[in-house]
Amino acid sequence: MLGLSVLGLSLLAAGCQAGPSGPGSMSAPGKSAALKTMEHIALAVQSCWFASRDPAFKPYRMADELNSFSGRPRILLVPARNPEARPLLVVQAEGDPAKVDAFGPLMGDKLGNRAAADLRRWTAGSKACA
User: Fold this and answer.
1) 65 near 76, Cβ under 8 Å?
2) Contact 73, 63 (CB under 8 A)
3) Segment 2-10 mean pLDDT
4) pLDDT (tens digit, 9 = 90+) per residue, 75-93?
5) Which of 41, 58, 94, 99 has the lowest tally of Cβ within 10 angstroms?
């Protein structure tokens, strides 16, 4: 009887030490390439466009949607005075390696070329502002 108790405790201890197994495990999966890329871009946008008080981006506000269940984390630029309005710029990524897309009315105005250049640089891994 003692042998079974020791065996049961050994199995119980081994079960507690084992890592997650299978798709039903409750542990958080690793970050996707798309999420890592969008986190990097979001930090650069915040730092270079907003925290630096860049006058070109003063009329806008960033809203992030990085915890996307669609597999496409994204950030939005919305009017600063009307954050509930339709986004003027959407930047999203998907896949591995991450493919970044940017679209919206802001891409068609004078600020669009600068935004595109910044996003290309940040997508490549740079942290540098313009």
Assistant:
1) yes
2) no
3) 38
4) 999 999 999 999 999 999 9
5) 58
